[in-house]
Amino acid sequence: MARTDTLKLGTFVYTFGFNPAAWRHPDADVQGANKIDHLLNVAKISEAAKFDFMFLADSPAAAIGDADALARSPTKMNRFEPLSLISALSVLTEKLGFVATASTSYYEPYNIARLFASIDHLSGGRACWNVVTSDHDETGYNYGFEGLPPHAERYERGSEFVDVVFGLWDSFEPDALVLDKAKGLYHDKDKLHTLNHKGKHFQVRGPLNIAASPQGRPVIAQAGGSEAGMELAARTAEIVFSLASNLERNKAFADNIKSRMAKYGRSTNDLKLMPGLVVNVGETKAEAQAKVDFLIDNLHPDVGRWMLGEFLEADLSGVALDQPFPLERLPTEPKGSKAMFEWLRDFIMEGHTVGELIRFYAEKSTGNGITGTPTEIADFMEEWFQAGAADGFILMLPTLPASLNDFVKLVLPELRRRGLFREEYEGKTLRENLGLSMPVNRYAAARNGGIAKET
Amino acid sequence: MARTDTLKLGTFVYTFGFNPAAWRHPDADVQGANKIDHLLNVAKISEAAKFDFMFLADSPAAAIGDADALARSPTKMNRFEPLSLISALSVLTEKLGFVATASTSYYEPYNIARLFASIDHLSGGRACWNVVTSDHDETGYNYGFEGLPPHAERYERGSEFVDVVFGLWDSFEPDALVLDKAKGLYHDKDKLHTLNHKGKHFQVRGPLNIAASPQGRPVIAQAGGSEAGMELAARTAEIVFSLASNLERNKAFADNIKSRMAKYGRSTNDLKLMPGLVVNVGETKAEAQAKVDFLIDNLHPDVGRWMLGEFLEADLSGVALDQPFPLERLPTEPKGSKAMFEWLRDFIMEGHTVGELIRFYAEKSTGNGITGTPTEIADFMEEWFQAGAADGFILMLPTLPASLNDFVKLVLPELRRRGLFREEYEGKTLRENLGLSMPVNRYAAARNGGIAKET
Predict the structure, then answer these.
(1) What is the ipTM of this complex?
(2) Are strands B185-187 and B8-13 parallel, antiparallel or unpaired?
């Protein structure tokens, strides 16, 4: 039976687009990493298209590595800090949601709780926190660590961190403010609560010094695919950004995460699985392919070699582009995606040059990529959606705003024609538009004789 | 000889105004702590008046104490987080500067460096960081401490924190971005620098992942009056917010701080001493006094008793308003201001009731207060300015927007008539309007054969 809900859509943001050569596109605003106009434009296009949100990826570090390659690849080197950015963008828009990434490994929970609650108020209920525990050693070096803290430690801290933040967000019950000037009574003292959290990683008294926010609490996004990550997502996440590379794997991942929700008292409707999807669209397949080729042609060999080296965790500097790949530098085990590693190994074994391999990797590394006509892309999205492999997509557009404009112009009308995407926003808040339920304040629940929902 | 420069002015912001009863004023927007309209209005009035900045005071904690009193006194209980707030306000204004308070005791330097650099870009060069080490045990409880960390420890950490942030802000030299699409070169690798800070409190590698900001670096404000605070201000601050209660003390404080600047290679022009000034203005003295009386009459006895108890560090709950002050609860030594303590003790000894004492304290506790006609207030400001006790004032307006509107309507024309305040903004950035010099990037200075300016 066909689904009765509709697709959720978000715009994934690296400043210039997902492709490392995106900033060289003729339509790219090269000042976009430091002047708001470019990303405001992306937000306005997304909002006019009635997208659910704009998703600000982040890492609290510049990349470390081949200085020549990095000087040609701005994504991680120069970008806005995402919380300040979404705060600014949210007051210049009306309906679009904003997802900002912030790390539980390098922040204090009281600061995160305040920042997101404040932005939820400023935006009138359009804030979402993408909870990450960070990756890459380069982040740890900026916060007093000798590299990235171990995975188990990051997730243990992250899980407690989210608990503290949720607890702080419940400090004021939703109806705690009295605001009675005549009586001089501002809030009801019985509806303001002290958390008194004492855990392994954090001791936080509270209460949070800001009233309950318009969404009850900001929406929670997450991406972790590990066992600990899936458990945290099942317990707390409302948007899950997946990276699996085919329908079957995403379907299995969706089923796996959603099957874990019941034990936390959650409905599967309250978690939207949204795979990242790289879209290259053209009126014809050839036109779409030409857009891919343009970006790959503009990927400087230094950048391609560095990206490939990062993936393989092998030093490829100095390797000649017109020679076969030096087999002794190929690791025996994949460090990242197994599928990608096997593709690369097979390609290498066919005797291609390093230059050809870079090009092959650049095309493949677009993740869940699809290049084609509007019909082909709508078919792809519809198939994933109906199969339960996706509740929507986070569009990893190769270049901004060009690829976003293409999607809105070419694919969106086809999705709407099929009844798969909204004509107008259903609600005022991000939570309403995503069709998520309103969280229950734990103290209000206890007061009303019920049991506070486990978080 | 009369000064040739002009006054700098800022609007001090507790949400509803400096007076704890401000939210009960008829013009107060009771939703102002959670909806942007009110503070945007305050910003727009300040900008139309050509003020230099809006100053967001902050504490990362709700107040702890008498729940009945706190339920009547919203200032610390419910407020926007200041960094998200100024980010939003800055993109809705064009010329006004924004000062946000953030604590070196409870943040990570990499996060603060990113947030303020990002806001400096978003605002086009109108961001200022008010560096504080925090006060009150209540803040420590939210960050894993058993109360407020000791003063010496806070300042040692704070001083190193500022060094790290300054270092990170220099990561990209001002002309590091090449932005050459054709060559595929985004930045000049030789103009991006790794900090590699290894200190007692912090180890931070860097570089910061955002380009040099429009002001070279955000402006720095500070308020510390201790020896360590004055030394940090002389070394790093560009706005100093003083709290001394008379002209002579402010003059001595200004001279003291400014005399310490030479050893850091700084000109005294690069530090603006701006005392906080509580202004109650009316067309007549009686009208001005009536405004004070209105607020004091609206100060609920619970709030007054709690404030007085906080100052004396004495528990006054349950003390009857119509009885004399219980002398056994009066401490022998002042914990806060000595002058205030002596005023209170003399008043108590005269046999006044607790109710009268609260009223007396509420009037006196307005700090550098002046209540009077536009001429009297302009005389006061001019005298302080010409004596070198102030380079300008941070206006602690009792209620917002009413007292701000009064000041703009009544006092500002008189200041302008005397040539003491600008008719138009001189520059585009806060730094330009304050007449501060542009900081020199340490690496650019070294490259140019000079010696990097000590910070």
Answers:
(1) 0.96
(2) unpaired
